[in-house]
Amino acid sequence: MHSLHDPLAQIRAINQTAAFNRWCHMEVISAEPGKVEIAMPWRPEVGQYAGFLHAGLVGALIDTACGFAAATVVGRVLASHYSVNCLRPAIGDRFIARARVVKPGKTQVFTACELYAQAGGAEKLVATGETLLSVVTGDVA
After folding, report:
1. Cβ contacts of 53 within 8 Å, gap of 6 or more
2. How confident is the model at residue 115, as a pLDDT?
3. What is the mean pLDDT of residues 1-17?
4. Which domains does the chain have, with CATH numbers?
């Protein structure tokens, strides 16, 4: 695994190991200590019945971006709780999640994220979220 000294390489490598992220076509745009930006293109397979991005995918983007932001600071993490606020229907050609570490700790990391929909050169905030992550140490059985 890549070290914490090269956050972009580290997070891109982690992203490629996750089959779900590959299926969603999630891409790591940027990563620096405590901050990550990921993107996902619109596809009908990620929509809900009315043609908007499914709320499950809204949550997945927020959870993933927050986990990646935490990983740039503390290494392996596991979400213990997250919340999502859907502000408007997520309609766009591409979705961008921008996450940041709010407070790192030895056993827990608090993060926050904004999710934007991009369409026609414009960007709209469609959701926000917060994630509490547990730091993973040792072997996980």
Report:
1. 42, 46, 47, 90, 91, 92, 95, 117, 126
2. 99
3. 84
4. 7-135 (3.10.129.10)
